[in-house]
Amino acid sequence: MLLDKSIQKLSDLIKRKEISSVQLVEEAYARIETLNPRLNVFTTLRKKEEVLREAQEADTRDPVTPLHGLPYAIKDAYATQDIRTTASSNVLKDFVPPYDSTVYKKLKKAGAILLGKTNMDAWGHGATTENTDFGPTKNPWDLTRVAGGSSGGSAVAVAVRFVAFAMGEDTGGSIRNPAAWTNTTGLKVTYGRVSRYGAAAYASSFDTMGPLGKTVEDCACVLEHIAGIDPYDGSSSPEPVKQYQKILDVSLQKKVIAIPKELFEKGIDPEIRQMILQTKKVFENLGITIQETSMPLLDYALPVYYFIGPSETSSNLARYDGIRYGQNRDHFTPETIRRIMIGTYALSAGYYDAFYKKAQRVRTMLIQEYERVFRACDAILMPVTPTSPSKIGELMNDPLQNILADMYTTSQNPVGVPSLAIPCGFTSSKLPIGMQLIGKKFSEDLLFAIGHQYQVATSWHKTLPPIFTTKKEGV
Questions:
Q1: Catalytic-labelled residue, pool 11, 21, 154, 174
Q2: Which residues of 428-463 are buried (b: 16+ CB within 10 A; e: fewer)?
Q3: Which three-class secondary structure string do you get for 356-396?
């Protein structure tokens, strides 16, 4: 199975003409034709003949980047010229953008080949990829369970090796949550590290664009080619883009990882707690010091997120009136309507000071909380989710529990810091467990180094879903 190899290994094989882009595309489509009907990964899958022509053309050129000729998938939040972009909502079910998002444009320039657009919670509103007008994406570890969200389609595409890597979007855990629940690696970047231009906006001050991959090394490779300042995005940063792959093996001696004690005391599944805390031994063997810390203000992250996020989405989605493009607002899902109503209420006269303005003040306090902890450490270790993947229908029928699925991932987006989700074990029922490493702004290089060296020392990320071992799948 070629697509189980790392991006760098595939690139080396392509450069030596030992494999071709056509072979990779053929393998991808063979697997998609077999498994996608059961998993529901794609909202739009490009015609195989069209993609093969691009692969054939790529094989005639000398690679200039490691992504050259590699098949990938992109979350259906990114605008792709002449390819349908829906945000998994019937509001945009027939929308074909006249322009490309910056990330898609950069990946084309790098030579990567797009297979299709992946399923998501409509507009990013959800943690399960069930709040979608295209049917839920299923978890390859247990088809009765959710894949996580909102970037569930992208995570599953990587987990079952449909692609070499995939792109997601993270507003409050939407890359990290599905990464943890599918045994893949996902990066929420520093706010401004990657351009948001051309991506459907959920909460503009929280949204970040990032990769999902088989490994930390793969994510590092992709970030090198999508990061950087963009004249079309005023929030993008001029911070120089590092050659992340070349510094994965730097010494971690004397680095310090802090563990917030409050996050491991209540509300977390005991098996998840145990597996994450067991990683301390691996980190210590890498020369890292582990210390306990206290971050009591994290209790306020969820309410801050669920006042500011819906407030911004109520404004962002007001443009979808069915006049200039798309269908009218009658096509919004119940979950999206709920968030619009919460946001509109929080911004309304008489409630602005009581809710939205107060949430922004607490946001500032969260920023100060992180700054305080980072004065004594280099990274923070946290769970990604409090539980294993839920059964399909469980969280969608319980809006409060749906919100609580994000309890560990909503504090980083208001603060703007990067977070890397990594597989770290399995439950007794063989469901994936993920942890996240949070760093200072623009410290993706350090998170990559810690995560990569952890993966070199462990093998959790190499385990494939049981869907591969079922003989009738033919894969």
A1: 174
A2: eeebbbbbbbbbbbbbbbbbbbbbbbbbeeeebbee
A3: HHHHHHHHHHHHHHHHHHHCCCCEEEEECCCCCCCECCCCC
Q: Which domain holds residue 425?
A: 2-473
> Known catalytic residue: 315?
no
Residue 130: both structure tokens together:
């069930």
Catalytic residue among 21, 88, 89, 150: 150
Buried b (16+ CB within 10 A) or exposed e, 356-386: beebeebbeebeebbeebbeebbbbbbbbbb
Q: Show the low-confidence residues of the chain (pLDDT under 70).
A: 469-475
Number of domains within the chain = 1
- Structure-block tokens of residue 146: 């959710």
For position 403, which CATH number holds?
A: 3.90.1300.10
SS3 172: coil
pLDDT for 470 equals 53
Q: What is the pLDDT of residue 88?
A: 98
First to last CA, the chain: 9
Instruction: Please state, in angstroms and rounded to a whole number, the distance separating the CA atoms of residues 302 and 237.
Output: 26
